[in-house]
Amino acid sequence: MDFFTEYGEGNRYKIEEVIGKGSYGVVCSALDTHTGEKVAIKKINDIFEHVSDATRILREIKLLRLLRHPDIVEIKHILLPPSRREFKDIYVVFELMESDLHQVIKANDDLTPEHYQFFLYQLLRGLKYIHTANVFHRDLKPKNILANADCKLKICDFGLARVAFSDTPTAIFWTDYVATRWYRAPELCGSFFSKYTPAIDIWSIGCIFAELLTGKPLFPGKNVVHQLDIITDLLGTPSTEAISRIRNEKARRYLSSMRRKKPIPFTQKFPNADPLALRLLERMLSFEPKDRPNAEEALADPYFRNIANVDREPSAQPVTKLEFEFERRRITKEDIRELIYREILEYHPNMLREYLEGTESAGFMYPSAVDHFKKQFAYLEEHYAKGSTAAPPERQHNSLPRPSVLYSDDRPQNTANIAEDLSKCLLGDNTQKMHQGSASVCANRVPQGGAARPGKVVGSALRYGNCSTSTAERYEHRRTDRNPALATNTVSPRGSYP
Q1: In a designed cystine with 425, which of 246, 301, 312, 457 is the match (CB 3.0 to 4.6 A)?
Q2: What are the phi and psi torsion angles at 259 (to 5°)?
Q3: What is this structure's pTM?
Q4: Residue at 476 is within a domain
């Protein structure tokens, strides 16, 4: 497979299989021969064809570097391009995840209340970290939440995310807001102008949680009007005050002229759900943004009394304005190329130091294997004709510098031990309460048998007790068989792997 072209670091990774394709490029699973880890490598083609696409890619890789948290997908490495001025493709190395929440919901009709609780807890904990960094995701949906068979979820796809600063205008024109309507908060329906707040992400999480409970989307609107219809069918007609705060005039008129609807009790809509879960869901799906809890308040809800631990729910440092200055001005293709190159250097500390000191060369960095071969070949051709016995030039480096792979232990102190202590956090301190609350939550090994269906989850929701787990299994509270066949459908263009 001609995957890495002239990227010399490519020999570090052993490509295994294609797990996703799209107009953006291709995603392959691979083995990192330096660390022994399984990874997903996303090759993004022709990133500078459209400045808007390149800006989205820059925003995404920058945010994923800044937002390092166990509930957010991690970029392990970005390959160094052979040319600073001329590169057009990039290779982003992610931790490998098996599926996404959309596939999990489709393939599982036997999820337990413990699964629902643990899934929602992870989403809200990740969202708290994102929001305290002053970042709003804006495109939360099941396909943008990666999943492993051990119940671990990770939020991905930050291409539509935005950072809020104190001088950000209150009304934002969302020319690029193309997120799936089904998970869009009602204050955004039919309006490109909107004040975005953390409440829009909370609404989306509520929709996702409801989908987990029922196995199907809660508000599958066919258009804006239909979306408002089915939202009000469940929540009832909003108050006059709530309608007056909607920015879009047509939406205001439509809601004002709508026949009065009474809300449907959530206990009727979700008859088998935990009453505590429904009370929290009802808060998250409040029509008025101000009535929705923020992520931190939701984590403190009684629904999570058995697993919540505030010490394992860190806040982030707010993102600095300087990191996203490019969002505030018009930039050229060459500007964005330089900014992406600068971001790639974050994974190459030696090169970054030279770049910052102004001592790195303007053209090629460390030569790729292909370029070096061409130079050796040209040298041999030239000197062989002259009868020279001189040896061709040696490589300047036996291998490319080992990249800066950022593990959880390299994170700031307040998040350094999240991965290591997650099982203890969720279960160790609360084992007795959890055992009393659900006898079904027990230590189970992987059931032996046929391969699971795509996204299939097998076994109990959580593992605790004396089960030994490896470093790579720190979050594993449940195991399942992995079906490699599911991978071709789990990665959407610029979606499942951001």
Answers
A1: 312
A2: -60, 150
A3: 0.72
A4: no
